Each structure stands twice: as C-alpha cells, then as structure tokens.
Model the fold of this input.
Amino acid sequence: MLALVVAVGSLLFGVYVRAQQPVTISFLLRAVEADQMRGLADRFMAENPDIRIEMVRGPNAADAVENLYTTSFLLGDSPYDILFSDVVWIPKFAAAGWLRDLSDRVSEADLADFLEADVAAGVYQDGFYRMPFRSDMGMLYYRTDLLDQVGLQPPETFAELIAASETIQDQTDVDWGFTWQGLQYEGLVTNFVEIIAGYGGFWIDPNTLEVGLDQPAGIQAVEFMKNLIDQRISPPGVTNYIEEDSLRPFQNGNVAFLRNWPYAWAEANREGTPVAGNIAIKPMVHAEGEQPAACLGGWGFGISANTPHPEEAWRVVEFFTSPGPMRDFITEFAYVPSRRALFTDPEVLAVFPHYEQLLEVAETAVPRPPVGQYAQVSDILQRYLSAAITDQMTPEAAMQAAAGESRRVLGVEG
Ligand code: GLC
Done:
C-alpha cells in the first residue's frame, strides 16, 4: 500500500514538474546583439514564466550567421524556433519553406505603423514572414573637434572627404582619415551600395534584373574604395574590418571619419571614450551633382516552419516588436526603430532629438535587391570587391566579372 502511494505520488509529482517546465524558444544572433537584447529577454521571462528565451551567440558578421541558420535548416531539424533575420534574407528562407506565414497573426493596421521598406522586406509572394524589430541605415560619422581645428566644414562629396582627411592627417596627430567595412562579407556590400548610388549608379534593378556593376558608376565606386587605401586615407587593414573593427580606432580617437550604422553613436559617445561629445553624423558623401545614399539594413523576427512551439514563439516576437520594448531597446543602444511613431515619440526625442529628421532618411534608404538569389549575388559582389580593393584585379576587370556572373545567376542575358 505504502509502495503504491509512493509510486502514485511520484508519478503525480513528475506530471507536476513537467507542467512547470517552461517551453524554450531559441534563436541565433550576432554576439554583440545578443548581449544588447539580454535585458529585454530577461524582462519577457520575468513576465512570462512559462517561456524561456535562449539566445545563441553567433559570429558578428551578418552573413556568417545566415550561413549557420542555412546549415541548420538544411539538415532538417533546426534547433531554432525563431529566425532572427537580416533585412535581406527572407526571399531565400521563405522560398525554401523554412518559415511560417505570419499574415494571420498581424493586422494591416498594425503593420501600417512600420516603415514601408521594413515591411516589404518580410513579404514573399503572398505571405508575410518577418516582423520588423529595428531598422538600420548607413551614415557618415565625423569628429567635430578635428574639423574645427583645421577650419573645415563636414564633407559633402567623395573628393571633399579625401581632402578633409588629408588635411587632418597632415595637421593633427590623428593617423587615419576614414574607416569603413572592407572585409569580404555582407558589410562590404552595404558600403558599396551607398557609394555606387552616390555615383548615380545601381547594383541590380529588382524589376528588370538589369545589373549595373560594369557601368561607369560601378567602376568609379570601386576605384574610390581602392584609392582610399592606396592614398593611405584608410588603413591597409580596412580590408579586414567589420563594423566593430572600423569603430574601434574611431572611438579611440585615431580616425577622423567613419562609415557605420546608427548604433555606433551610442558606442562612440559612451562615458570615458576619448571622443565622447565630439562626434556628429550626416548622410554619406556622394559625387558632385549626385545625392547621398544610405543603405537600408535592419533586423526582424521570423518563425521556423518546424518549431513545435509556434504560439510561444509568436509571443516572443510580439513582445520584442511591440512599441514599449522596441522603444526601450532603441533608446538604450541608439538603434533605429522600425515603428514610425517612435521617430516622433517624446521619450525617444528626449534622448535623440535628431530622430525626427532621421525618419526621412529611413524612408529613402536604398534597399539591397530583394531577389531570391540574393545570397548568391551578394557573394559574387563580395568576392570581386574584395579582389579589387586588395589589388588582385583592377576595378574594371572585377566589375565586369562580377556583372557577368551575376547575370548568369539571375538568368538574364549579358
Ligand atoms: C547591419 C545591418 C544589416 C547588414 C549588416 C552588414 O547589421 O543592419 O542589414 O546586412 O549590418 O554588416
């Protein structure tokens, strides 16, 4: 009898313990971002004890994370319930059937509060696969104190950026003019998108699939990047830099200009940083007579097709992308919101008064082409850009080869 009581008792206890076990919702993301999102995840878990969020810290290069997700989905049994997705990944992941359609979960009215380009990035055929969390756009950072010291205005054109860098390198103890992201990875492509647009050109027209890399603007853009290194405006090591590497020397006071995303503002102004209080941002430089261009970036949430916990995964997505948590996240780390109302939110403007103007920049940012073969065409461009800026090919030969390969992948005639 006693044995039976004990047995039933432990069985019931086992059921009780299982009922109390939270469901784990897991996703992979760049390590820097996992550290930043930890606070919000903890808050969610405190409010939702039935769900545990597991954020797996991945490499800091965006497309290295994409490769890891791709491998895990290809193997079939992905451990990730959520795809924390760059703005350019959705056509590929949705076409492969790796994501759930979220159309039924979010109303048109709610989506109307998000930046149009961020929403568009989540659409594939008739479905909607990515809730925007934060937007991003490339911009030019500069040191106000250095420009004052040499008596120059912030540069508008490519030529002015080079001239101002040379003056500062000559007349102050700062070693380098300009740092950016030159490693062979997705970030290099985002830098290039801004420069080619600044010369009046384009990479791929998504409507016609025309490739513009081997047109004069494409070649000039690569020549500009290569000249920065040849003329020692940028350090030779720039060809190995991702975002964090380009920010570090700027933050330490050894560079006059930096191309980076808005988060760098908070990093560079962190208390104790030598340049804190002496930096400003502006749209990227461009060729005389052309317009500045910001590459659209950003991150959002998709839900894996094969997660056993779609309801819990959605609760996590809903939390991160709702106005309150989004506001707290972007004000703490100087990110750009995906919700339009936050650009004019008094609490946001109290911290970042310039966000009201940023909305216009955000709405005109240049997207990377939303083609299903994006990962392949980006890889082609990365390889040839890298070959040109590391002196293995001339800019012209590199862009001709890149254009030819891209046309083959896109299935258009050369
Ligand atoms: C930023 C952008 C992302 C881009 C990446 C490239 O994380 O938000 O869209 O692909 O940088 O390095």
